[in-house]
Amino acid sequence: MSKPMKKTAKLLISGSEHFADMLYVSGMFVPDAFVVIGIVEDKKTTWHGLFSPLEVDRAKSQTKLDEVHLDSLWHEQAKALGWKPSLAAAAAAFMQNQGINEVLVPADFGLLAAEELRELGFKVTPSPASLFPERAIKSEAEIAQLTLAERLTKESMHAAENFLAACSIDNKQHILFPNNHEQAGEIVTSEAVRAVIETYLISKGAVPSHTIVACGNQSADPHDMGSGPLQANEPIIIDIFPRLVSSGYWGDMTRTYVKGKASADLRKMYQTVYEGQDIGLNMVCAGADTATIHNNITKHFDNQGFKTGMVNGKQGGFFHGTGHGVGLDIHEAPRVSKNGAILEERQVITIEPGLYYADIGGVRLEDLVVVRASGCDNLTQFHRHLEIE
After folding, report:
1. Is residue 233 helix, strand or coil?
2. Which residues fall within 8 angstroms of residue 44, CB to CB, at 6 or more apart?
3. Is there a contact between 221 and 214 (Cβ–Cβ < 8 Å)?
4. Which CATH class is domain 136-388?
5. If exposure means fewest CB atoms within 10 Å of the residue's CB, which of 44, 107, 322, 323 is most exposed?
6. Where are the domains of the chain?
7. pTM passes above 0.85
């Protein structure tokens, strides 16, 4: 007599607002934590959601899950078994009813929930990465969402460009608000340009997140958001990465500007980054090794005299990866870096080389592209020029 096949499950307990795996599997935004259980039988996974009375009816019409259940019933079952009330206990009651005692959970699954499940007799194994590695390969529907997000990102960058173009420069090299602005004659700050960008995005259904407008020596720190007055003739890095309210997909792009005239050193640095980005963009295709892309850009920078290392106690040169995947997370697989990954069709990645020196400032250029069989589709397609008069 053959033994019955052993059933296993995948388990997630979280909200979907800020956890991409949960949004991916459920297909709906839920701010509070809920339970999703994927029961694996005969190599097929059936996805069950346990929702509160507040969310269960909405879930029946909106979720991508195969089955929707009211979690109250399973909380009651857990209570009848003498278990202390929690989402983990409700999940355990459901899984026990299904004959499951082993679960695979995300790498960042809550420790308290894992301990509760183990105390109730479940074997809990963390996944080394996402429960959904297939997220790295985007469907054409997902690419359409990313295209929309990037279009809004481009439009907000254009709004920032237009604003800076309308500004003037005083004899102290301050950038001043345009004459037709309610703050005419006042000094423009990072915060003011950020407001131009973010107001536009919000009006179009995208949520901005820590938009970078960093000038001068602030631009030499890649993740400095920037603050205070902007200075003419200095680099201004603008990095915009908004999330669509409707679907959760992200856009991402960076440009570097100078309001006024750039120094010869800065122009050379900008041209080098421009060429480095072209090297990367031209190498992107299915089957390409991201380590080779990154290393070729680094070699180009070295050959142009822009070395990477410590300069007067600070990091200088090109000291971050060339890019990263973008989807329901702003940073996801694959990484374009010296560690390497083989690109596959329909992955969506950034190519964003940069150079940073405290005495000059920073330069970064970033485009978002879709990996194709023999190249890439550039979703950004936005001009690159340094000076704004």
Report:
1. coil
2. none
3. yes
4. alpha beta
5. 44
6. 8-131, 136-388
7. yes
